[in-house]
Design brief:
The structure holds 2 protein chains of 2 kinds.
Chain A: H1 2-37, H2 47-62, H3 65-71, H4 73-80, H5 86-110, H6 114-122, H7 127-158, H8 169-178, H9 183-211
Helix pairs in contact in A: 1-2, 1-5, 1-7, 1-8, 2-5, 4-5, 5-7, 6-7, 7-9, 8-9
Chain B: E1 2-11, E2 17-27, E3 32-36, H1 43-50, E4 58-63, E5 66-67, H2 73-80, E6 83-86, H3 98-108, H4 113-126, H5 142-154, E7 160-164, H6 172-189, E8 192-197, H7 200-206, E9 209-214, E10 217-223, H8 224-229, H9 234-243, H10 250-253, E11 262-270, H11 278-285, E12 289-300, E13 303-313, H12 316-328, E14 332-335
Parallel strand pairs in B: 3-8, 3-9, 6-7, 7-8
Antiparallel strand pairs in B: 1-2, 1-4, 4-5, 9-10, 11-13, 11-14, 12-13
The chains are: A mainly alpha, B alpha/beta.
């Protein structure tokens, strides 16, 4: 009986985390690349765009998640047709994770030795070729680590999804463990979360090591 | 081959830095041209002006009859594909194997995969790294990395190879072998090499021409042998002084000789002159004694280059005649005392 509830909650957490991680990566990568490449002295230096994107990202990152979740309910309803449930929770989770991921992408790109970019320019590479053939491949190990951090972060955020009926392990811990004084459920969900985060981190570290040829 | 006209570049900032100040430079085709100067002299900026990695504030950049500084970005990228460049810190892509690094400029230029493979194999052969094709740069030594850099720079059959302190991060032994490789490439492929360095021995080893830079200005330029034997500028003399340490102890220069007149001379010999017995001829002709204080002989690319510091002791009149004789023998002569 209890394991069924736990299994159900774990599935909900995984759906929320995996879906929002994918969406965050999809939008965060280009946004982070744009942030890095338009920065002063980089391949597509553009002060105005850089400042604008930076401001948007900072606003996104400074809103507390619980408030963001409630604030964008109309947008969520418009986008997925409902404002409650697991699917609805994916929308605010993604929106919170995009600027976070973008900053991680930006710093991963900044890690690349400027000399390597200069070498590519000296060979006549276009900015587009530099992005695809130099920046992304050279940063891949850092990007995977950034993706891991984003995922783990989203596990934490997803615990708040109960506020809009998103379900998941965090919600289970609050409703059963805390509100019904079920210490055993609280303990089991927490153990499950720890294992989940640990597994994600190990997987990410392993993949990053595999990709790094430095 | 390369003609820089009136190149100026200033870095603005809290304190404006005049990196280049109205520099004119002609670099002949098929030669190895060295630019030497201490750090901050502007040589690195000058080199980057040739492929416009640095855009000069004023002046014209001509390479192979094309003016580069007025090209559109697209045209400039095409022109850059015909100019190879190697770097002090190699700047290889860490995520690519040796073979993939060499293939990179070919991909950029849109060379088909089959052709790329053939060229990469050939280039690996040229730089002697055929067995390292599948290695990653992190697994290579500094010298091997620079060989990959050279192979990569040669991939698109450039007319010009720009070398940015290419041997400064290498040990002397590796430096020699990389310089040998550059020299053989210059001879075999006939491409023009421009290199910048702060090390005189690099110039001495492989360069045909040299430009001496200081404070963003080319102080002196000419064939290496001329600049080495007859430096005209103070900057060139300073650079040379560091290389050929010729610190003769002052007490030796100014010793008394029991009141007998003496002269201390510095003689430089180049090429065939280095083989002729000029000193013994002088001693036979004039009543002077010669005492060798310091001597060395170097190889300058293919020419022997000797330097000798001697002290002559004898009657004043004989000394003058001996010096006159040496001058008539077309040896470079400098009277130190």
């Amino acid at each position: 009986m209890l394991w069924q509830i736990l299994w159900q909650a774990l599935q909900e957490t995984l759906i929320m985390v995996v879906a929002s991680t994918l969406i965050a990566a999809l939008f965060g990568l280009p946004l982070g690349l744009a942030l890095a490449c338009t920065s002063p002295g980089h391949i597509l230096e553009n002060r105005v765009i850089n400042k604008l994107l930076g401001a948007i990202v900072n606003v996104g990152r400074s809103i507390p998640f619980i408030i963001l979740m409630v604030a964008i309910i109309p947008f969520t309803r418009w986008l997925v047709g409902t404002s409650i449930g697991t699917t609805a929770a994916i929308v605010p989770l993604s929106i919170a994770a995009i600027p976070f991921a973008a900053r991680l992408v930006e710093s991963a790109i900044f890690e690349i030795d400027r000399g390597v970019i200069e070498a590519a320019q000296s060979m006549g590479s276009s900015p587009w070729q530099i992005i695809w053939k130099v920046l992304i491949p050279e940063a891949r190990a850092s990007l995977v680590l950034g993706l891991t951090i984003t995922t783990v972060n989203l596990v934490g955020y997803s615990a708040m999804a109960g506020a809009i009926g998103g379900g998941g392990l965090g919600d289970l811990a609050i409703r059963f463990g805390y509100q019904r004084f079920r210490g055993d459920v609280m303990l089991q969900t927490v153990i499950l979360l720890v294992i989940l985060v640990q597994a994600m981190q190990m997987l990410g570290d392993w993949a990053s090591r595999k990709l790094s040829k430095r | 081959m390369i003609h820089l006209k009136g190149i100026s570049k200033t870095y603005s900032g809290a304190r404006a830095v005049h990196a280049l100040n109205n520099v004119d430079l002609q670099i002949p085709a098929g030669k190895i041209f060295g630019i030497i100067g201490s750090s901050g002299a502007g040589k690195s900026t000058l080199l980057r002006c040739i492929n416009l990695l640095e855009v000069p504030d004023a002046g014209e950049v001509w390479v192979g009859g094309t003016r580069l500084d007025t090209l559109t970005p697209r045209e400039l990228r095409r022109a850059r594909q015909k100019m190879g460049m190697i770097f002090q810190h190699f700047n290889l892509l860490t995520s690519r194997t040796v073979a993939e690094n060499i293939a990179f400029p070919l991909e950029i230029a849109g060379v088909p995969a089959k052709e790329r493979q053939r060229k990469v194999a050939n280039l690996l052969e040229i730089v002697g790294l055929a067995d390292k094709a599948q290695a990653y740069p992190a697994q290579l030594s500094g010298g091997q990395k620079q060989r990959v850099g050279i192979a990569r720079a040669l991939a698109n059959d450039p007319q010009v190879l720009l070398c940015d302190e290419a041997t400064s991060a290498l040990d002397p032994e590796t430096t020699k072998s990389v310089l040998k490789l550059l020299q053989s490439i210059n001879q075999r492929l006939g491409l023009t090499i421009v290199l910048i360095t702060h090390e005189m021995p690099v110039i001495q080893e492989i360069c045909d021409f040299v430009a001496v830079m200081e404070n963003g200005i080319v102080q002196e330029t000419g064939p290496v042998i001329d600049v080495f034997t007859r430096p005209q500028s103070e900057a060139a003399r300073r650079m040379l002084r560091g290389t050929f340490a010729q610190n003769i102890p002052p007490e030796l220069l100014h010793r008394n000789n029991n009141g007998e007149p003496h002269r201390v001379l510095k003689l430089s010999f180049v090429g065939e002159r280095a083989h002729e017995p000029i000193i013994s001829q002088m001693v036979q002709h004039f009543k002077v004694d010669a005492n060798i204080l310091f001597g060395r002989i170097d190889q300058m690319k293919d020419l022997p280059f000797g330097m000798l510091v001697i002290e002559l002791v004898g009657p004043e009149e004989q000394l003058d005649q001996a010096v006159g004789f040496l001058e008539s023998q077309h040896v470079e002569l400098e009277v130190l005392v």
